[in-house]
Amino acid sequence: MKISFTNILKDYRNRLFLLFLVPALAYGFQTEFPGVSKKGSSSLKSLEILEAGLASKKSVPASLFHLSRGEYQKAFDALTPQTESQFPWLKSYLAGLIKASEDLIPYESEHFVLYLPEDQSFLRFYALPAIEEAATHMEKVFGHRPKGKIRIEVYPSKEQFSAASTLTEEILKRSGAIGICKFHRLMILSPQSLPMGYRWLDALAHEYVHLMVNELSWTQAELWLHEGTARYFDTTWRSDPPVFLSPNQKTKLLEALEEERLIEFKRMSPSLVYLKDQDEVSLAFSQVSHAIESLMKDHGERKFVKFLKLMRKKTFPKAFSTIYQITPPEFEVVWQGKLSEEKWDKTKGALSDDIFFEEIDEDVVIGANVKGKVRLGDRMRKKGLFEAALIEYKKALEEEPDNAIVLLKAARAELALKRGDDARDHL
Prior knowledge:
Layout: E1 2-3, H1 12-21, E2 28-29, H2 42-51, H3 62-68, H4 72-77, H5 81-86, H6 90-101, E3 104-108, E4 112-117, H7 124-142, E5 150-155, H8 158-165, H9 169-175, E6 179-182, E7 185-189, H10 200-217, H11 223-233, H12 247-258, H13 278-310, H14 316-324, H15 328-339, E8 360-361, H16 371-382, H17 386-399, H18 404-416, H19 420-426
Parallel strand pairs: 2-6, 4-5, 5-7
Antiparallel strand pairs: 1-8, 3-4, 6-7
Helix pairs in contact: 6-8, 7-10, 10-11, 11-13, 12-13, 13-14, 16-17, 17-18, 18-19
């Protein structure tokens, strides 16, 4: 049986409820700049200024200034031979960006401008309150709020998101990337374009944390710290303690530690999107978010913010050593020791955290021992016998307590019985 998440419920309200709660974790990314590799070059400096939220008419070329303001046609029109020589990728990127974003409709809140596909305008009733709440929380944590209104773009298709994000469709599929913070704006793929949806509101918070780290450090944070910080904090606006490791990720992290397959932090640069596959990407996220938790537990948020700001004056290694009295490589060794002390149980039936761009066959993700119970539950549910269906689903969950597909089916039955709180508990 194929699973298409967008067909689970037809009315927008219930669909959005589930889109927020579906167990798969969102992967948002920080990446290097396209076509720029030389450290200290004027082109790299201009892009760093843009990402740090410091772009002005005097500090960057006119085309980049307009790009930073979301004025894409003006950015294209402002291209000069000198700018095209300095940024040979920019003209084609802007042309693709103009086309990809031309039908997006803006909706504003106090601190954000959200651009949505016209037929998904209802998303604003969820996205804007959530990101405002997340931003207020992050201001308390980091003591900082970006100036002006931050631009958020939600793209309806993988093709359009690819054009806007600078990530190829092959990279999206291999890495599971569905969000990015780039050119001082937040971009995500619409949750309606994925059959299983994803935690898209957390993805917005994730990208916002990337933007905060860029502004506080003036873009000097190393990739592992960038991603670990964004993942660790992306649920803190709604959950205490934060939910940064899924049951499946804890299991995979323990297995990687036991089998000596942990990914070196330096191998994660220039971006997690260039790791081998979604399994490696998920493992990397697990490692670095757990490492950030270690920093938070041992040193606290205030010292962490002090470290981020010190990067405006010192290199990442020197700032890290100054604040934490240990080098980054030494910290990586210490962190691995702390990871080995975790008393986690390996989970049964935990669905992979992979992002699915196409419909999936549930037989692939439901164990053989519980398929009979799930199928019986499905038959009961189709007949309107929701209480009977729940009994079968709960039997299945006794054997695979973390299987997201079974949890989702149980939640659907609870919703049919108008028990929204019980449905939320399953998810």
